[in-house]
Amino acid sequence: MSTYSANPLTALARTNDAKTMLRRFLGIDAVVTTGNGLAYAAASGPLGRFLGVDAGLLLALGVFLTLYGVGVGYLASRKSPPTPAVQGVIEANAAWAVLSVVALIAWLSPTTAGAVWIPLQAVTVGGFAALQYAALRSLRA
Question: Could you tell me if 70 and 30 are in contact, meaning their C-beta atoms sit under 8 angstroms apart?
Answer without folding.
Answer: yes
